[in-house]
Amino acid sequence: MAGNSTEPGQSVTSRVAAVLLTFTDGNVYSLTEIARLTGLPVSTAHRLAVELAATDLLERDESGRYRVAGSLCRLGAGWRQPTLAERGPCVLDDLSEATQHVARLGVLAGTTVRYIEKRPHHPVTAFDAGARLPAHATAVGKALLAFSPTRVTERLIAKGLTRFTRNTITSPDRFRHNLTSIRRLGMAVSKDELQYGSGAVAMPVFSGNKAIAALELHVADLRTEPRSLSAALAMACGGLARELKATLPPELLEGLLVQSAPAQAAAAHPAEVSKLNVA
């Protein structure tokens, strides 16, 4: 049935909404049909249809039937789902201010990570917006690889896990094990894997069951900071997912969409977190 029924006692707004919702299927209706589909008296349906036509929300054809007017169609067409590039910077601003840490947003581009935004913009580092870095040596990259199809990881491994420092994970088996641990905890860490003096913790942002991006925080001490920062990071990832009309997979809701309680990763023992960075 097109439209929604109304009951006596409902507000004028509810009745107007019922009439407009009748046309969600794109069809043309007579007054009698509008009254039947909405459950309104014919006299009420007539009055509302005439008023909606007068305001250019409906239009009446030569046979006396009604359809959606062009202005209402244009109003609907003016809305679009926000993009990652639009909402990401806002989330990074809030995350950086709340944690007082440098926050970054990245996406997987083949076997590399492309950093989209960074807050604050200074100091300038290799992890700035626009940078492309090897996925296997960054927290963002590992967070995304852990929740990507296996073929993506295997393609990267086939190309070789380049060593950048003594902490870079270059063994295929150890790298696969590392990604398994990341999937279990819902969090990735990196310490001195790409360059010395760089440490980070990252979590993925989901759209359905797909990790479309990851948020990352710069950390100096992997023994304590991931535990204290993971709740804020998880809330930011969940918030960005909701803003993008995304949903998290059920198995990660408890760990990644936290309210006031710590995230699964936050509750992890420091020893578990440290295992995420074993080369």
UniProtKB/TrEMBL annotation:
SMART domains: HTH_ICLR (SM00346). SUPFAM superfamilies: GAF domain-like, Winged helix' DNA-binding domain. Residues 71-250 form the IclR-ED domain. Keywords: DNA-binding, Transcription, Transcription regulation. It comes from the Bacteria. Signal peptide: none annotated. One of its GO terms (biological process) is negative regulation of DNA-templated transcription. GO terms for molecular function: DNA binding; DNA-binding transcription factor activity. This is IclR-ED domain-containing protein.
